[in-house]
Known about the structure:
- By secondary structure, the protein is an alpha+beta fold.
- Helix content is 27%, strand content 33%.
- It is built from two helices and five strands, in the order E-E-E-E-E-H-H.
- Strands 3-2-1-4-5 form a five-stranded antiparallel beta sheet.
- A hairpin with a 2-residue loop joins strand 2 and strand 3.
Amino acid sequence: MCLGVPGKVISIDGMVATVDFWGVWKPVRLDVVDVDVRPGDYVLNHVGFAIRRIPPEEIGETLALFEAILEQAPAGDLLAAEVRHDMGRPEDDEADR
């Protein structure tokens, strides 16, 4: 499954951003984003690469969608498991079994 997960850019060093995914900070490459990214922006991450900057008018809706997936998915839901895995929260993997 291919899934992008939104996160907030905390800092940038060259082409690597530190991005906050619901409290988990991970490095994310910015090489393929075609617009400037700054701390405070939100990006959609896929396998360690930011694939686009999320426009400010879409951030609320995007985060609400992912929070609904994480909070409302029943145990064993594969989409929720994939989101948690991509967020780097292996401790949550148990919730999906």
